[in-house]
Amino acid sequence: MTEAGITVSWSMKAADWLDIAAVVQRAGVPAMVAFARDAKAAARQKPRYATFFLKGGWRGLPPASSVPTPRTSSAADRPDWCEDPDCDEKSRMRQSEDSNGLRSLRPCQQCHPNRKETAA
Fold first, then answer.
1. What span, in angstroms and rounded, lies between the C-alpha atoms of 50 and 75?
2. d(Cα 2, Cα 16) in Å, to the nearest integer?
3. Residues 33-86: pLDDT tens digits?
């Protein structure tokens, strides 16, 4: 929660700690942080205690989904561009021509050094 900009006191009763442990098991920390971020934004006064979130809705969070979230590609996932004029900066692919004059795309071996070439 601190990384999300939410700093509160975690001084609370043992029963509240048990409730939080149950919510972590059922809903997961990401759901708790998302709820706390939204609740903080909607609060009239800055929350000072974690029990604000526990009593305000953490107990009612739904169970975490067992379906993995789809991975989206980002610029950080792409290999560095080799800057070769034959290599496309966005796709990191090279166009090549075989002996029959047919053109095809293949991964640039400079940008994708560990990728194996596969026959089409």
1. 36
2. 20
3. 999 999 998 888 999 999 999 998 999 999 987 766 666 655 556 567 888 888
Cα angle: 18, vertex 19, 25; to 5 degrees:
90
Together in a domain, 18 and 45: yes
Alpha-carbon distances of 4 from 1, 15, 37, 59, rounded to whole Å? 5, 25, 7, 20
At residue 10's C-alpha, the angle toward residues 8 and 16, to 5°, is 125
Same domain? 53 vs 80: no
Q: What is the dihedral of CA 22, 26, 31, 35, to 10 degrees?
A: -50
In-domain check, residue 4: no
Q: How many domains does the chain have?
A: 2
Residues of the domain holding 42: 14-60
pTM for this entry? 0.54
